[in-house]
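Marked as duplicate of an earlier ticket. Keeping the data here for the record.
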Amino acid sequence: MTTIAQAVAQPPVLEVENLSIAYRDKDHEQRVVHGVSFAIAPGEVVALVGESGSGKTTTAQALIGLLADNGRVERGAIRLNGTDIAGWSPDRFDTVRGRVVSLIPQDPTSSLNPVRTVGEQVGEILKIHRYGDRQAIARRVVELLAKVGLSQPELRARQYPHELSGGMKQRVLIAIAIALQPALIIADEPTSALDVTVQRRILDLIDELRSEFGTAVLLVTHDLGVAADRANRLVVLQGGRIQEQGDTASVLRNPHSAYTRKLLADAPSLAQGAFRPARATAANDAPERPEDFAIVVDGLVHDFDVAGRKEPFRAVDGVSFRVRRGTTHAIVGESGSGKTTTIRDVVGFRQPTAGRIVIEGTDLTTLRGEALRQFRRTVQLVYQNPFSSLDPRQTIFQIIEEPLLNFEPLPAAERARRVHDILARVGLPPAVLERRPRALSGGQRQRVAIARALVLQPRVLVLDEAVSALDVTVQAQILALLETLQRDLGLTYLFISHDLAVVRQIADTVSVLQGGRQVDAGRVEDVFLRPGSDYTRELIDAIPGKKNHLPHHDPLDIHTTHTTQAPGLLQQTA
């Protein structure tokens, strides 16, 4: 096991010095990384932190020779165990990739070949680097799958990726990365697609392997909570330039740059106990009247028929909750908890097997055909991923206008007025109306998705992981927008999420689902401070950022002079 003090005394595994990277197109070349310098010692974890477009992924790709064809290292050095590999050819990179430096990619679903077994894919790196004969490779594959915590490793080796869960697939990618015990592992957003408890287990696994083998880790992430918990040092990037770097605890407690302070202010997981009293009292214990509740779900059950089984699969089992008008109720749970089935019933996409769903006084379970279609104007859904939920062929005007064409026979001039009005509500300029989704950022696309949902003037908005695909600062902006819209329009929100840090920030009440059953419910503050189930406690304990949680940082407090620390190997404070 390599301690940080021992690591600092050793030569660095990686030294990046004055690195600049550019991409070229038909007309010109654009520099996207500007003079970046940092180092990583054996057994050390350095987090490269920044939003989309900050240059962190491009930097990581250059370190392992995976830049796009139109990208190149303009200048600077990348010394891996003392050897400058900047500008190496793909063939030369093949000699060190996997053996000296390896990559854990972001998305396990797209990173694994669906038509090859897990064993074949783990064994491929061993075969490339001539680990041994077929039997030796097969034995090593099973050892690696066991090492990363997969049960029944012999069986897993024979399975295909679609037969594994997301967390299991990520463990397979880690097995590939550690197969030849490289000196450096680059972990590119290795848990961003995973539930919070699975995320913690994967990060724990990376920590254990780092300690066992003395491997250096470059953690590429936009999640400051993860970086705060796992990294010895932080390197903060914005626009391809280092804004700040140094010991994690020091950077978090005394950030020198305005950009770092803004990232800290926008990171919900770093502000422990950050409940909002004004919002919490909106769901107080005043005498209850039926008309106070915009949503009443009572004894909801949903069964699915399963081929080859006599008994149906029960995805939702007796879920009940009520949402006061003008407040936010969160439904929390991991994949397979039943939260998605619950909301699809609530918005009328499916008929439940049993139970009642009453929205604004109308029982959805009694509606059919045109009556149900018309009632959907009252409840609108904002999907998780703005990149896939908007039609790429339509202009933004057409996307927002489409619900009006489907539900309201208005004159063209009135439709245009409604579109412009709601666009202003979500904070977008009229110029975006003639663009298509590909021309917008992720945050702009989500604003368009919200505008489309609001153009019919619904009473209830269902937000399905509506900020989970966004960077932390964009996420904070969308959450602020949702709060403003709720206050101004009197909206009731049903907020579906696996991120309890965000739920703590935005919701008044919460239901926690596990295996289709509601295991906890109540005011957010009560559930967080006095959880009623072991599962809820596990979810809360898995929220990243506890190791270095901070008081709230004001992103507007920018009086501190900006400084950028020189790169170095600083010892982590206890």
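See parent ticket for discussion. The chain has three domains: 1-100+185-272+550-574, 113-181, 277-541.
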